[in-house]
Amino acid sequence: MLTVGILAGGMATRLRPITESIPKALVEVAGKPFICRQLDYLREQGVTRVVLCIGHLGHMIENVVGDGAAFGLEVLYSPDGPRLLGTGGAVKQALPLLGESFFLLYGDSFLPIAFAPVEAAFLRSRKAGLMTVLENGDRWDKSNVLFRDGRLIEYNKQAPRPEMKYIDYGLGLLQAEALAPYPSGEVFDIAELYHALSLADDLAGYEVHERFYEIGSHSGLKEAETYFSERQPQ
């Protein structure tokens, strides 16, 4: 299975005061750091190699995760450096570790779906990228994807329109060459790339039906706590 890049470098301002002293990846969810829950699940999905894009307090993540051996994984690190590069800039910087094609996962998302069929769909599509999408109807956030008859027509995080009923689920795949137009060290949002690919009809869509869990906000963290607490063995 392809390498998974995890974007774990943000400031996590919405989770303050929790994240004033620890990075979001280390926030405990039902008694366990969130990144540990992500890594355990990736191993269960057959993933063997993970690249953590780190920034704010990233050394603390390294101290907990190490080389990944405790999770049955190989874990590598790509630090932003002296300034935060944004999600897109962080991915661009990590390309030497990610390979020619790779999964991309947000560091605050837990996605209870099977990864192998998503990878297979990406390879079949022969497109530069693939985005998993969920019919949302503005339930969890503003819907930002126009997806119709199995085709992703447009993704637009900045200017969503009423006809957009789907949302970016949080798991994508990219070919490294898709980032070629962006200079190294440039600050940009990966959403810009996804938007450009969608307009060029070079972004496949893969519909999923399981809701996602996220810890990007206090309300999301509470829902994730409930979800994992109910899954804990009694």
Polypeptide structure, described:
The chain has helices at 34-44, 58-65, 86-98, 115-125, 190-199, 218-231; strands spanning 4-8, 28-29, 32-33, 49-54, 74-79, 101-106, 109-110, 129-135, 145-148, 151-155, 166-175, 203-208, 213-214. With 234 residues, the protein is an alpha/beta fold. The chain has one domain: Spore Coat Polysaccharide Biosynthesis Protein SpsA, Chain A, CATH 3.90.550.10. The strands form four sheets. Strands 5-4-1-6-11-8-12 form a seven-stranded mixed beta sheet, with helices on both faces. A hairpin with a 2-residue loop joins strand 2 and strand 3. Helix 3 crosses helix 5.
Topology:
Layout: E1 4-8, E2 28-29, E3 32-33, H1 34-44, E4 49-54, H2 58-65, E5 74-79, H3 86-98, E6 101-106, E7 109-110, H4 115-125, E8 129-135, E9 145-148, E10 151-155, E11 166-175, H5 190-199, E12 203-208, E13 213-214, H6 218-231
Parallel strand pairs: 1-4, 1-6, 4-5, 8-12
Antiparallel strand pairs: 2-3, 6-11, 7-13, 8-11, 9-10
Concise description?
This protein has six helices and 13 strands. With 234 residues, it is of the alpha/beta class.
List keywords for this structure.
two-stranded antiparallel ribbon, Spore Coat Polysaccharide Biosynthesis Protein SpsA, Chain A, 6 helices, 234 residues
The tally of structural domains comes to 1
Average pLDDT value?
Answer: 92
Which blocks of ≥5 consecutive residues have pLDDT under 50? none
Rg calc: 17 Å
**Can you summarize the main beta sheet?**
7 strands, mixed
**CATH level 3 topology:** Spore Coat Polysaccharide Biosynthesis Protein SpsA, Chain A
Proportion in helices? 25-40%
Structural class: alpha/beta
Number of strands: 13
Number of helices: 6
What is the CATH class? Alpha Beta
Strand content: 25-35%
- Report the end-to-end length measured between terminal Cα atoms: 32 Å
CATH architecture classification: Alpha-Beta Complex
Strand order of the largest sheet: 5-4-1-6-11-8-12
CATH homology group: Spore Coat Polysaccharide Biosynthesis Protein SpsA, Chain A
